[in-house]
Design a protein that fits this description.
Elements: E1 2-6, H1 10-14, E2 18-21, H2 29-39, H3 41-48, E3 53-56, E4 59-61, E5 72-76
Parallel strand pairs: 1-5
Antiparallel strand pairs: 1-2, 3-4, 3-5
Helix pairs in contact: 2-3
Length: 82
C-alpha cells in the first residue's frame, strides 16, 4: 500500500486528508491521478493543474514519477498569503 496525502483545499475534494491505496495497476503519478479521478472527477482536474505540487517520499517530483508500494505521496495545492 501507498499512503496518499491531500493537503489544504484538496482535503474536501478527496473526502479526507489521507488514503491508503494498493498500487497493483498504478505505476506513475499520472496513473494515480487517473485512478483517483474515477471516483472524484473534480479532484482529478485539480491534481492535474501544474500549480498542484506532487511530493513523493518528501521530494518534489513530476507526474511521470514512478511510484511503489510503501511510498508516501502528497498533493499540495497552490498556497497564498503574506
Amino acid at each position: 500500500m501507498a499512503t496518499i496525502l491531500f493537503m489544504g483545499a484538496l482535503n474536501p475534494l478527496a473526502g479526507g486528508r489521507e488514503k491508503n491505496i494498493n498500487l497493483d495497476t498504478i505505476a506513475t503519478i499520472n496513473d494515480l491521478i487517473k485512478f483517483l479521478a474515477n471516483d472524484a472527477p473534480e479532484l482529478g482536474q485539480t491534481l492535474n493543474r501544474p500549480t498542484t505540487l506532487v511530493v513523493v517520499n518528501k521530494t518534489v517530483c513530476d507526474r511521470g514519477q514512478s511510484i511503489s508500494e510503501g511510498d508516501e505521496i502528497a498533493f499540495l495545492p497552490p498556497m497564498s498569503g503574506g
